[in-house]
Design goal:
With 293 residues, the chain is mainly α. The chain is 48% helix and 5% strand. Helix 2 runs parallel beside helix 4, helix 10 (212-225) runs antiparallel to helix 11 (229-240) and helix 11 (229-240) packs antiparallel against helix 12.
Length: 293
């Protein structure tokens, strides 16, 4: 796995170079501006897994933790950026990262995340809008990430995760259709695999035509699913082949912004700084490296 280790080292260097002086990683540029807490939590959790290979990753993760603690919303939780209200996905991703560190997040932040749950068990991304607003309805990928975060703080028999898993199991029968925020169903499928939720529609992305983001997500899911080493190695090599000379991976339109009224499909957006896709690729390759040991 020498090629994988080399790719991980170059990719980690790209991410460390892309970290801002305040410890944040900023990416995407949508109407509210550039994302801060959301992308920082996502990237930091993946950088932290590379500390055995890249010692400088530890200091970068520590800086990101300080940034996230400083960017906590006054009433609890975390947001896309300082201009936005708290959302379930940013809060869940931050709890997943900080929840394994000391000091642990406040139980108030856990309660803020739990408050995004609807009576049917699903978690909405936002709750600052009326109930018929599309972004305030339950979303499968957000629910899965929220449940993974809450598992760090709540027992498995607690009614919040039990109700959430029941709702999510229904969505797993049609993961492509249940996907809301992403241009590929591979994100939701990986989150379901991390939770151990069986997927009825288990078709993988077309390896020859999938973009970097979907390919990386499928690779990590393959590792979790126990796919044969030869298949995993082949997919890892195809991902490495798309790595850019600077160590990052190409930017693609991966994030979907659906029309909250449902009148049209909305728009898709690329991570212009290439941090999100690169972090996803590194996570997959690191999983492949661990699985090959």
């Amino acid at each position: 796995m020498t090629a994988v280790r080399d790719s991980l080292g170059r990719g980690a260097a790209f991410l460390l170079n892309g970290q801002d002086a305040d410890g944040g990683w900023r990416d995407f540029n949508l109407r509210p501006g550039v994302s801060t807490s959301w992308t920082t939590a996502y990237v930091a959790a993946r950088v932290e897994t590379l500390t055995d290979l890249v010692p400088a990753a530890a200091a970068a993760a520590d800086a990101a933790a300080r940034f996230l603690r400083d960017s906590r919303v006054a009433g609890g939780g975390w947001a896309y950026n300082a201009r936005c209200p708290p959302d379930a996905d940013s809060t869940a991703l931050t709890l997943l990262f900080l929840g394994r560190r000391e000091p642990r997040p406040s139980l108030k932040d856990v309660a803020v995340l739990a408050a995004f749950q609807h009576p049917d068990g699903g978690f909405a991304t936002y709750r600052a809008w009326r109930a018929d607003h599309g972004w305030a309805r339950p979303h499968a990928e957000v629910t899965a990430t929220a449940l993974r975060a809450l598992a760090l703080f709540l027992p498995s028999d607690h009614w919040v995760p039990r109700r959430g898993l029941t709702w999510l199991a229904g969505q797993a029968a049609r993961p492509e259709q249940a996907t809301y925020w992403w241009a590929t169903g591979a994100y939701l499928k990986l989150e379901l695999a991390r939770l151990g939720v069986a997927i009825a529609d288990d078709a993988a992305a077309d390896a020859d035509n999938a973009g970097v983001f979907a390919r990386a997500l499928e690779l990590e899911r393959a590792v979790l699913s126990g796919v044969g080493r030869e298949a995993i190695a082949a997919t890892a090599q195809s991902l490495i082949a798309r790595q850019c000379a600077d160590g990052g991976w190409p930017s693609e339109p991966i994030l979907r912004l659906p029309d909250p009224a449902g009148a049209h499909a909305g728009s898709t957006h690329a991570d212009q700084n290439r941090l999100f896709a690169t972090a996803t690729a590194l996570s997959a390759l690191n999983a492949a490296r661990a699985g090959a040991r």
